[in-house]
């Protein structure tokens, strides 16, 4: 067997991280590298296109490990302390066991020896395992470089007395104060910082845990970013000084699309969705005038109340514009007295004239469609990159994680946008 470089890739097990990881895996596979892509068992069962991808990319294989929760537990995973704690202390051991299995396969000439691990920069356990086993490791940052810098700056903000803050006790004036004394000065407010900054005490175990997780990628040999120099040039030198090397190779979805071409079935498979994509909405978009439709999607993790969903619905209807809205079945985060999730009936019925509602839309195709003139988004990094590439102006409704930082970073009008429906933002 020819000894190709063998890269083990370990994404955070959420849609917004898996997609860019999978794009990178396929691009590396095309260069001749042998890739082992590690899903959690829960997500492995949700992929329907693994066999198609393996045929399309012979150097790409898929393996799975536990995410620290019982394998029979089919409940959706969420961004909780318990979940991340399980990843760190249980998935770490399962990853070590898998690498041992892969090493034995290489001894039997079934696959090349492992030469590198590319781990998700949002968690520390791939770096921990690589260090313990003496394998070179590179971190892949699926969010923006500015968000990473915000995380790296947290110890300095604590030292300066700017953190912690507590939303219930601090005045609105204080949480709107811009972060001072750092490369992010003039761009971020305290309330735009990561969610775990909203705590009473820096000695809180959750606080310490998430700070250490965020800083783990500084221990790797370098950091890969799904971004471009033109988007985030001001913060990249600082990150490179801290992390050693910084590679800006994005937007990865556009690079992969250019390599694959315009074969729609291949493009759909290559971006590996955990959700069943509804393509019927494209026929509806075909019937709409140019730049007349507002596309609405809040990503794969944002949850909201039934009342908030209904408020958004009323706003969309009252705007007078046509809209395409992706509303996940698990988006409502509340139960009634009987323990049943209450989903607004009006959304189940759907609009009869100007609107179209789906569970999950083929977002890249939607944004590229001539009928779409604006995007109401949660501000996730994948959505921002896809919208910029499509030239579609955005209206932001950031909620969690990196979204407030991404929104702050990209809150200026995008020159050269399609125009049209974006004027609803005022």
UniProtKB/TrEMBL annotation:
Glycosyltransferase N-terminal domain ranges (all copies): 7-107
Disordered: annotated segments: 403-426
Classification via InterPro entries: Glyco_transf_N, UDP_glucos_trans, UDP_glycos_trans_CS
Keyword rRNA processing: no
Enzyme class label: transferase
Gene Ontology molecular-function annotations: quercetin 3-O-glucosyltransferase activity; quercetin 7-O-glucosyltransferase activity
EC number per UniProt: 2.4.1.-
Sorted UniProt keywords: Glycosyltransferase, Transferase
Family named by the database record: Belongs to the UDP-glycosyltransferase family.
Protein's name in the database: Glycosyltransferase
Source species of the chain: Ziziphus jujuba
Lineage: Eukaryota, Viridiplantae, Streptophyta, Embryophyta, Tracheophyta
């Amino acid at each position: 067997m020819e000894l190709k470089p063998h890269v083990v890739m370990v994404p955070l097990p959420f849609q917004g991280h898996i997609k860019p990881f999978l794009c990178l895996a396929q691009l590396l596979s095309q260069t001749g590298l042998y890739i082992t892509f590690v899903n959690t068992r829960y997500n492995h069962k949700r992929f329907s296109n693994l066999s198609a991808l393996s045929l399309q990319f012979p150097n790409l294989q898929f393996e799975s490990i536990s995410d620290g929760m019982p394998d029979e537990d089919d409940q959706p995973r969420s961004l909780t302390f318990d979940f991340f704690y399980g990843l760190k202390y249980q998935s770490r051991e399962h990853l070590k066991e898998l690498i041992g299995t892969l090493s034995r396969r290489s001894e039997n000439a079934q696959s090349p020896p492992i030469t590198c691990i590319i781990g998700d920069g949002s968690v520390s356990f791939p770096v921990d395992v690589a260090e313990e086993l003496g394998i070179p490791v590179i971190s892949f940052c699926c969010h923006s470089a500015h968000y990473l810098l915000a995380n790296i700056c947290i110890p300095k903000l604590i030292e300066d007395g700017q953190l912690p803050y507590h939303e219930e006790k601090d005045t609105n004036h204080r949480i709107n104060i811009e972060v001072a004394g750092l490369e992010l000065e003039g761009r971020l407010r305290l309330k735009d910082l990561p969610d775990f900054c909203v705590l009473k005490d820096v000695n809180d175990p959750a606080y310490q845990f998430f700070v250490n997780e965020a800083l783990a990628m500084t221990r790797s040999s370098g950091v890969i970013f799904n971004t471009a120099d033109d988007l985030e040039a001001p913060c990249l030198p600082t990150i490179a000084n801290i992390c050693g090397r910084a590679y800006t190779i994005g937007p990865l979805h556009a690079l992969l699309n250019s390599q694959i071409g315009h074969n729609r079935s291949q493009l759909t498979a290559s971006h590996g969705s955990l959700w069943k994509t509804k393509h019927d909405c494209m026929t509806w978009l075909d019937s709409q005038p140019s730049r007349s439709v507002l596309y609405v999607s809040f990503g794969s993790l944002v949850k909201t109340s039934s009342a908030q969903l209904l408020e958004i619905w009323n706003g969309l209807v009252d705007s007078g514009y046509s809209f395409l809205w992706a509303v996940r079945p698990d988006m409502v985060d509340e139960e009634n007295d009987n323990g049943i999730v209450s989903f607004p009936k009006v959304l189940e019925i759907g609009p009869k004239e100007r609107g179209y509602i789906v569970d999950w839309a083929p977002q890249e195709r939607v944004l590229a469609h001539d009928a779409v003139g604006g995007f109401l988004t949660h501000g996730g990094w994948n959505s921002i990159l896809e919208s910029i590439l499509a030239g579609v102006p955005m209206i932001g409704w950031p909620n969690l994680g990196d979204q407030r930082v991404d929104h702050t970073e990209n809150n200026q009008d995008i020159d050269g946008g399609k125009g049209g429906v974006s004027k609803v933002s005022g």
